[in-house]
Design a protein that fits this description.
Blueprint: E1 5-10, H1 12-17, E2 18-28, H2 32-39, E3 43-44, E4 49-53, E5 56-60, E6 63-64, E7 81-84, H3 87-100, E8 103-112, E9 116-126, H4 129-155
Antiparallel strand pairs: 1-8, 2-7, 2-9, 3-6, 4-5, 5-7, 8-9
């Protein structure tokens, strides 16, 4: 069986605001209208995070737009959604978050094999303002070198 993945939404702001230490793949519990909205690509992961409550992992502040054809029976866009992980992984994440100042952020939401919705979450710690500036400088320098190499190839 091939592991075909189709990315629906990415959290680009997370990589800008946090240092990513570890990543995990989790399942997510969704209703029927939420699945239809996710298939339509109407998901926003910005400003969302994961939190451990009562031994369960929950995705908070993720916006999944209401499904238009559902009418009044559609879902609430920003409701907390349960993430599916093994108990020992959840306990490990909870320990890291409590003692070391880490946070759990979603990086992307995608379909695995065109039927299972998965969320890639990361154990991350925040960047300082000077770290963000340094990352921007490095990215700009990388772009300049790529441009220079491309110009050189064109002249040859």
């Amino acid at each position: 069986m091939s592991d075909k993945e189709k990315t629906v939404a990415t959290n680009r702001k997370a990589r800008h605001d946090y240092f990513i230490d570890e990543t995990y793949e989790t399942g997510i519990v969704l209703t029927g209208t939420e699945i239809k909205s996710v298939r339509a690509g109407r998901v926003n992961l910005r400003d969302s995070y994961a939190q451990v409550k009562d031994g369960e992992l929950w995705l908070i502040d993720t916006h999944i737009a209401p499904y238009k054809q559902a009418g009044r029976s559609s879902h609430e866009p920003k409701r907390p959604r349960k993430l599916l992980m093994h108990r020992r992984e959840i306990n490990r994440l909870q320990g890291k978050v409590q003692e070391k100042g880490y946070t759990i952020v979603p990086l992307r939401l995608y379909f695995r094999n065109d039927k299972w919705v998965k969320v890639e979450i990361a154990l991350a710690h925040g960047k300082r303002l000077y770290d963000k500036r340094q990352a921007i400088r490095e990215r700009d320098a990388q772009r300049e070198t790529e441009r220079a190499l491309a110009d050189r190839r064109k002249r040859l």
